[in-house]
Queue: 4 jobs
Job 1
Amino acid sequence: MNRFKNLGVSSEILKGLSSLGFQEPTPVQDQVIPLMLSQQADMVGLAQTGTGKTAAFGLPLIQLTNKKQKQTQGLVLCPTRELCVQVARDLADFSRYVKDIKTLAIYGGASIELQIKALGKGVQIIVATPGRLNDLINRRKVDLSAIRYVVFDEADEMLQMGFQDELNAILKKTPVQKNTLLFSATMSREIAAIAARYMTDPVEITIGKRNAGAENVRHEYYMVHAKNRYLALKRIVDNSPDIYSIIFCRTRRETHEVANKLIQDGYNADALHGDLSQAQRDQVMKKFRCKNLQLLVATDVAARGLDVNDLSHVINYNLPDDPSGYTHRSGRTGRAGHTGISVAIINMKEHFKIRQIEKKINKKFKQCRIPSGLEICKKQLVSLVDVVTGVEVDHEQINPLYMEISEKFAHLDREELIKKFVSLEFNRFLEYYKNAPDLNVSETKKKSHDRKERRRGSAAVKFNSKQKFTRFFLNVGRRQGILPQGLIGKINGIPGVGRIKVGKIDIKRNSALLEADSRFAPQILDAFQQATINGKIVSIEVAGKDYGGNRSGFPKTRRHKGRKQMAR
């Protein structure tokens, strides 16, 4: 028996679920569906990506819709067009056998004229991205006056992407009397603020621990010198012959460079970033979903809303600036009952980020060794042998050719035949990893590095007293979890400039002020601009001479110790 029946799901929807192979509800569906069907209550659902949230809110939304009424009654807001399309497709599948119900996906990148035309015919459920929906509201082409249910899907991601103003504008156009449901992977301050502002005594449903990472994901990190990051990536990939992974990079440029290197080195990879057209994005994702691609190299923005359930790995080529961003990345694997591995490649200066993320997700990372060339060759060889032994022989096709083939191999004994077979299939790995160096950075080396950096920092204080520094003002502070080492680490992570000297750092409740070498002011401004920290978009500017009310530009209290220290 289909267990969704016990949750109160109608026979029409059950028929659609059975055709899709849905028999057992997930934990989030088990809790949300009966609550939505039996109570008119606002709700906050905290659950990781891939736990079945779409069906959890989608099935009741379909069932509670008045089919005789053509006005829009349900609104689902999504952060990206990919997630918007996926949710709309899922709702259409769930309601396959429900008569007289129409669902429409509204998102940027598609014809707005066609969307306006579809709205004019009557749509009961709209699934939309905030930007395009707000555009249609301003054009007076969409009517939200009869809305009964509003669902925020991946609400934390919408806030990270800067949709706060659009969300406010949209909600103002909906009736006061409605049910608001908010689904999020994390419970940030901003999510709590939305709940407080737009919801009335919301019921909170938490699957797992609050703000915790996915239960089925193992977290690992590899520490290497920054110059060896790409070499380490290749070894991690080569050590997992059946890998199926998204590789997250920080910028579009880095995404493009890493993908091109992988392709040139013979890997089955491609890039997904904001410079691609919608048609190009669709083509890349089609290849990745059907596993014609093993590796998808992507930025956070490009990968938001991707619906891929069986990733073996998520690889952080660079960690995100915001620890909550890691939660979303790692949530791409370990979905739908599968297990997964989330990997971070870090250098010695980034070790503090691992500790920040551990606190955020309430889980520990395991430090792993970059495998040696010999270890990788053994792993690849075993995989190759497993593939060969698992091949089914079509005797009917092979038998007519067998005698000729057998005669060709007659002069080779068993051992020589095996070695030739392995060499033919395996020479690339054997040659590449011959005399391969050790890429690992030991804890001893790290501690030694830290001591040297501290000594260099002290020397910089003595010999650079006349160093010219520029003061920078940032709109984030203690409330967003900013720490001095985080700011220094961000500056150290700027590619291609080496070590940048940092002076005083003052962190207030909602802002921060720091000094850094004036020669690198453009690079520092560029590095911080549009970064996100705990859901807030960072803005940075050069601080005026009189900022802070005294001659130095810094307040006289809570000054960060370590005058003109070296960034480390």
Note: Confidence is low (pLDDT under 50) at residues 456-465, 546-568.
Job 2
Amino acid sequence: MSHFWKFFRAGGFDQPRIDTPADLLAIGELDQKLWVALSCPVSGSEFDTRTLALIDSDGDGQIRAPELIAAVRWAGERLADHGVLTGKRLSLAAIRSDDEEGAAIAAAAQELLADSGSEAITVEAASAAQARFAEKATAAWEAAGAVARPLGEATADAYAAYQSVAAKIDDWFARCHLAAFDARATDMLNASEDDLRALAVGVIDTQAAAGLPIAKVGAGKTALVLNEGVNPAWAGALSAFATAVVTPLLGARDSLSETDWQQIKAQFAPYVDWLAAKPDPAATGEGTLALERLARYGRDLLTLANNFVAFKDFYTRQGPGVFQIGTLYLDGRACELVVAVNDPARHAALASLSRLCLVYCDCVRGSEKRSIAAAFTAGDADQLMVGRNGVFYDRQGNDWDATITKIVDHPISLRQAFWSPYKKLARLVAEQLQKLAASKAAAAESKLATTATSVTTLPAKPATPPAPFDVGKFAGIFAAIGLAVGALGTAAVSLITGLLGLAWWQLPLVFIGILLLISGPAVAMAWFKLHARNLGPLLDANGWAVNARARINIPFGTSLTQLATLPFGAERSLTDPYAEKQTPWKGIVIGLFILAGILLAGIAFVVK
């Protein structure tokens, strides 16, 4: 390896630095095991699709490492000034013109510069050169057509009439020559009895005879009569041919000799050749397409390499990666790691292995629709739910209405994991209380309805005497309640005794231990998942072939999702006129807990 490589570490692995034209031209020497990606799709990224299509030499919709290497090598061979590969504008002097291909590119560039009057070739101008070439070729072709039209403006209609019967007229003259050669063939060259018998069955359709000769074949016939004895299926076309072609070219006549026919064909021959020479609207002049390739490669190859061989743009945060298609604003956050999605169900199956919290959204802008997947890497997922709406801004600044359709749940932060057990407990308690309240309300409503119905529909019944008091039954109930209270009391006494047996400074440690016991497993699990977050599966689900463990650690992941913050120097008023009225009970409960802790610490200190 002749090139001296430099690497930078990001995402948990070493990535090659591609900063100079020499770095770019040497990527073919770099071991592909060190490449971050080995393949990427032509579509679905924020990169010039025309450039990618030119690099995609086999046209399969994927850019692979050999194709990128070939594009870089070709650009290096065609440039005399490799500084163009850093985005410098392409000039005539920067093009190597010492071989046939280079000379063609230089000629196309010289013509383009002469037309535009500028000193450098832009990508837009090089791309437009193809259209201008097609326009010039079409104009030249149109000019040549003026002398190729035997009937002027009427030539097109006349040629259509000529084409409609040309094959049948050639066929008729050939049949007559064969009949003159051997009279025995005359009957076979005309319609046979079986053909005529088939035509005679049912309602006769003249078009059914289109396969028969245009007129009756005979050994002594040397001219085709245009208005008598003509096959009914061809009578109309032959009449139109006589009017549009024969009369204007040869004068009015009732028959067409073979000499006349050959004369008509000769007069149409230049027009036929002219039609065949019509230029392709997508055609390019010699060197024009290569000039466009060179201009695009000079502008785009270094950027593409830093999003393919390395993920420099993504990991250095100097700009978005080509796979980042915009920003999703939702739930007070701005998510910058957003990728395009063609099939959400299939995408989620692989992308979930990235260990990222992913939110899939359907985006609508007028009649346009697209699907995206956004990674939430800061904050929490408490308010993320299917059906919530946000706004997606693409890289062109267009805004789209975004609606959540699917959520792939993974830990977002350690803080979220720490509080998740308590939030789950609170939700569980709230749900149970709501269910209990709902059941009680339903029972009360049912009882009221039953009572109202019985009062209005049934006669009053004599009051039922109360059941006698069952001493044994209530004694058992009281005994069970006593046992439960005793057990709770014993547990409370044991807990208090244990706490009193501790030094005062040990009480906070017990409290911290309880918190760790509850939140520790969730935090540990989240820690492992957060450190296993990998960009690879997210991109692989879109057709990439990521070749490295492109990790997204906690600090870097946090930078990919921006939380809502007040502007610097903003004035903030804490007075809310519609805030709920505060009750003293919250403060009283907190005070009692603090007082109890102080008393326990004091008692423990006195006892010691």
Note: The longest helix spans residues 414-457.
Job 3
Amino acid sequence: MAKTSSPKKEHNSFHSYHQFDQINGLHPFQKACPDSFVPYQARVRRGGKLAYFNFDLAKEMGLIDQEHPEKITAALSEKMLETFSIIIINEFDQINNRQFPAEDLKPNAYMATKYLQLQHPNKTGLTSGDGRSIWNGVFKGNGKTWDISSCGTGATRLSPATAIQNKFFESGDPSISYGCGYSEIDEGLSTLFFSEVFYRNEIETERVLGIIEFPKGISINIRVHQNLLRPSHFFCHLKQGNYQGLKNVMDYYIDRQKTNGTWTDLPKTEHARYDYFLRKMTDVFAKLSAKFEDEYIFCWLDWDGDNILMDGSIIDYGSIRQFGLFHHEYRYDDVQRFSTSILEQKQKARYIIQCFAQVVDFLKTSKKRPLNDFVKAQWAQDFDASYSESKRKNLVYKLGFTKEAQDFILKKLVVELEEFSKTFSYFEMAKSKKGIQKVADGINCSAIYCMRDILRELPQIILARESGLEIEEFIEIIKSNYASAEDLKENQYRNKMVALFQQQYIELVERVAKNQKTTIRKVLLDISLRSALINKYERVTGDSITTIVHKVLKLKPKLTPEQIFEVARDFSHYQNLNPDKKPNKNRADGDKVLRHIFKIVREYREGL
């Protein structure tokens, strides 16, 4: 009996894909927040093929069976195209009375959500939001509810192009770029590679479920997260003074966080829940601004809250960068304006929380007070305290200390750690005397020292020598390819800082050894093993991702969707920098594509 029932079980598990039927355009946000989206009927979009499918994510969601082979069956490809290969019937289509076959029409309306965007002429969010994306709906699986959206499904009325030119565009109109409503496969692959690396390193992010490819490099890029709301979904109603619209979004978001088990200790009364919300948001954005600085992540965080999700997850990878060095003067050139810098992201995060303080007060009192009334409220103290604590935690972790040692330093050696932090920052912040230069997509004044290198090499050298480094040796390790002879000229103050860095470093090691009643050598050995991974020589940057995507696109005619999945997964495992996670085996030794990718990462390790 077992033998005869097995094929039937396999057919039901692997080839019916009935779980996909949940994803049909309907979303609870549509009923809860009726004035927060524009509905669009959609139709089948033909001519596409499945270029990528994220088996790991689909299994995590419960979208496919855990035992599903990592193979694109004909039935899986057909179901993905049936579910996601769609295009909206937009205002241009309606004005021109375009008719489509009845069998191509989807039964439910899909939504393009409204949110605030600074680049729109209207600064209150009346005309802005999802300009080339729709939400496919929700999926409930494995005890969680997941939001799914697709980018490249047609031009909506919420794009900047429509607002600026005061006209509706045909989807795919070649005369307009962003306003045409399409996306490209290089965008999907960039998001895929970057987001999987971030996910592997516990940096919150949306993830790519699949990519559907069309001729001429056009694609639909399918993205997933447990809650795709952004701060800007709130702020459009705040700027408009729309109390009910704002309350709807707030109550929906809080309920969703509770349902997903993300917030387990919510108070019962409405006002207490709003206060709880503000405390949570304050902590999230304080920590993420510290994390972005210390991991050298440029997200173009701005006060409108458009480029980030509510839990601090990274989205819209078009301008995302992870620097190899602390290029703190880099700015992205968006034609009409330059972006914030990485250091300015903290102030933008604080401004977002100030707006949330105004939101909560508005909802509790029904009166919208001026934003300046909330400059010195409790949230500001909480934000600064959480930010400072996060900076200390991030530094002591990067140093490579064990969890036990980290806890001791953070509790007993706060002053010593702060002093070391100042010395560390002196080198990290050092920049080229060439000043501001143009780069491929913006401007930058290059950093000149790689601090990951000294954190990785110093404990090994002290272990081998039982002594520190000479000044010239120290500079030789930390100097980057951006450092000119002029930048590296010897000076008395820098020499003093080299000595101070090593002195403070050794003091921390000695104090930990004494507390743990062990040898300095044992502490250094622990640090050496952990720091070698945390501060890995080959660390992905935005430049390397761009180059990797170009390489994959060049090889793509020979790569199957399964091979792209394997390459992306193995690459993200290779970039796992967590010393407390057991590394997964990958195919690096025998895979030509991966060897090319690793070479690219090494070549661009110091870049933008």
Note: The first strand starts at residue 37 and ends at 40.
Job 4
Amino acid sequence: MDNASPALIGPAAAPLVSPFRSRARRVQWPLVVLLLSIALTAIAAIDAQRSVRNQRRLADRALREYASFAAWSYAQHLALALDGIGREVLGAVNHGDNMHTSSPVPTAQDLASYLRWDEACRCRRTFVGPSPEAFFAIDLRERSIGVDVNGAATSAEPIGLYRSAASPANRVSPEVEPPSGAVLTSAFRDWLLDSLSVRVRSRPGLNRGFRFVIERHTGAPRIVAYTLMLLAGDTMVYGSVYSASSFTRILANALDSPGLLPDAFSEGRANRDVINLAVADRFGHSLFATRTSPSAGLSARVATPFASDSLQVDAAVRPEAAGSMLIGGLPATGLPFPLGLLALAAALSVIAVVQIRREGELARLRAGFVSSVSHELRTPVAQIRLYLETLRFGRASTPAQREWALGHIERESRRLVFLVENVLRFSTLEQRQPIVGEAVDPVAAAREIIAEFEPLAHSRRVLIELHAVPTPVVFVRKDALRHILVNLLDNAVKYGPPEQTISVAVFTDGDRVTLSVQDEGSGIPVSEREAIWRAFSRGSTSAASGGSGIGLTIVRELARAHGGDAHVDATAGHGTRFLVSLPTAPSSATRLQ
């Protein structure tokens, strides 16, 4: 008569449909929504980044076009400046396509006399550009060269002054070494004769007007301006020589010239504050550059004719001025924000997914807990009803039978009380209130609790043995000690084999008293010896035996609340041995009441 029949259990035996199960199924929908939100955020971030890249591409294209215009404008202003400089110093001997018919033919010394007169210094000087280092005149028919050196070119006199050293000694032939001045070296004169003769003879169409070439074969580079004058018998080449520093000033002045950039482009700023610029010859040798060279990515290059040479002009809009040239300014890079937004959304979604998984797992555990508790409660209730009906209908006719039935009722009532107390105790685990402990004799308390529990153990023919030696008192609540030992005994009876012997021991371990309970079951795997202490968790070897999964959680929490601890003895041989240590002095723990 230990087992209740289904007819007696009645509606109480109907399966319980837990709302947690349907809730666990609904957990998938938030997960789908979160994954969809991640996908939409990723699409939005990618689209935003694509838009930013397109805007940046358009902005870079606009800046390159601005730079291209600036380089073209500089090339035009430089061409005008060079034409003005050439016209100022060589215009008197340039007849265009007309032939020079008057006599005499101008010499190199005559060129200085064609410069404008300045009453301030009562001298001839240049006003448009720097003063040349020297003038020269080449007779291509006779292959002779005449040179006139500027005596003021290396003095402290004003820039632009030309003080002619006109004398017969200056009219030298290629065979006669000049008296002084590096500009009159034989190598330089040879280069003038050879180079300009080839240029004029081979490409006459490129030599109209005023031309400039760069000489780099005799040490420091020099810039040579020249023009042609047609004669009846042949052609005269007249020219002037400038130092590299003088030509650098020409290039710098062209950058600073007004009107180089439109007002809408510069907004009243100096040209150097708007663009970076560099000028090099056709071989890449730098002739002039602003303080900051143009960056390679957003620069534009223009090649301007420079006699038979070419000048390479590189220009780029300065970064600090680029924003004011574009409507709305430079677009932000956009990379950190969309990627940061995507990373944040992904992180939040991962957290949400983890939380949802935890909620789903908790819902599953709670559903299992409700199902287990319902089953655990139904069993003693069904047993109590069965034996009450036995007594009510007079089926126990003798005093011994009635006592037997009452004993079963008492046993199942105690089991019911233990279950209800466990659930109530579990519900108060999270309440953090001060503990008021009391001095308790652990041996006497263990003996009393075992005597109370023995009727439940006898139902499975289990023997409980107590092995104890005199120990100090422990400072715990007596009901807490009862919950600890009852849960350990119930766990041993429930998951151990029938007719086993459960050994309970109380002994001193240092400054603590240890309570041990060992059964003769199959033991607990090492991988599960920590998991079994978590709420609603049961070991794989005991899952089929029922149980609510909160008993061991209550044991450890109560032990730790009093300053002790609980664990599985790893050195135990056969079966499972639980050890609970309790302090022999008042604990300062303030977790549970």
Note: The CA atoms of residues 140 and 197 lie 7 Å apart.
